Amino acid sequence: MLERSHRGGSQVCRRLGQLIRRGRLANDSRHIRLEPQKDRESKDSAVIEQSFEIGSDATLDIRIATGKVEIRRGKDGLAVVRARGDTDNLTVEQRGSTIWISAERRSNWVARSIYVTIEVPDGLDVDAGVASADFECEPVVRRLGVNSASGDIRLTDCADLSVKTASGDVHGNDAAGRLDFVSASGDLHMGGIGGRADISTASGDVRILKASGPVNVSTMSGDVRIEQFEGDDLRAKAMSGNVDVGIPAGTTVDLKATTLSGDIRLPEPAASDPSSNGLTVSVSARLVSGDLRIRRV
Q1: Within a domain: residue 19?
Q2: Residues 60 and 142 in one domain
């Protein structure tokens, strides 16, 4: 009796294996079926597009964690937002004069990339929190504020610029007004700054082609280079970073500089005294082991 039951059990097991190999267990196959690769790709590449009528006082408020944000020059009175990628959790809406674009991270989920392109006219205000997403701005904006962790930032022209970044680099053309820059290791490269500039960095380098207003820069180990300084007051603090400043010929320089182990290098006397341009600049530098160099340009 026991032997017959054992043989019957073996037959059942063999029959069950045959059914599984033939795909006859419909309920089980539904549980183990995988989503086709092309279906997953189509979800990842979902595209949305929305348009809004805007006025001259419009503001863009952007909150994107990963991916890329591109702001392009568009038509007057119109904002066009296009997005692709993981758009399931993306919000695009108009709140009064503000265009709100946000992709909040779902708890316990890894953030997935979203690629957003925004077409707007010149003259808007922009506030952006982009974490590790890259950020580009082509139109001339009144005020641009960017808070970034590791994403790189590129822009053309703006009136006022405020950037806080951990390790992302900033490349800009001109800021006609005020510049506020705080960074841990990100570099700052600017074409021109028309107003006051307050710059603080730990190890990032700073390079400015032309500064026309007061500059206050502080760095731990990053280097600072201002190709042409036309403001009236420059204050620099550095631990081991070097400070290099070009000052127009004929400018009177009121220099107050101290350094522990670094060198201070001033321009060689001119063969003939250049005529004074009537400008006076105050340069105050406090360095530990970094060098200070002042050039005539």
Answers
A1: no
A2: yes
The string over 37-63, giving b where at least 16 C-beta atoms fall within 10 Å of a residue's C-beta and e elsewhere, is eeeeeeeeeeeeeeeeebeeebbbbbb
User: What pLDDT, in 10s, does the model give residues 252-276?
Assistant: 999 999 999 999 999 877 656 666 7
Q: Which pLDDT tens digit goes with each residue over 185-231?
A: 999 999 999 999 999 999 999 999 999 999 999 999 999 999 999 99
Q: Find the domain containing 244 and state its range.
A: 169-297
Model confidence, pTM: 0.81
Model confidence pLDDT, tens digit, residues 157-176? 999 999 999 999 999 999 99
Query: Which of these three, 162, 185, 217, is where a domain ends?
Result: 162
- Please give the tally of structural domains in the chain: 2
Nearest-Å Rg of the Cα atoms of the chain is: 30
182 and 292 assigned to the same domain: yes
Q: For residue 32, what is the enclosing H or E element? A: helix 26-32
Is position 8 within any domain?
no
Beta 46-53 vs 78-85: how paired, if at all?
Answer: antiparallel
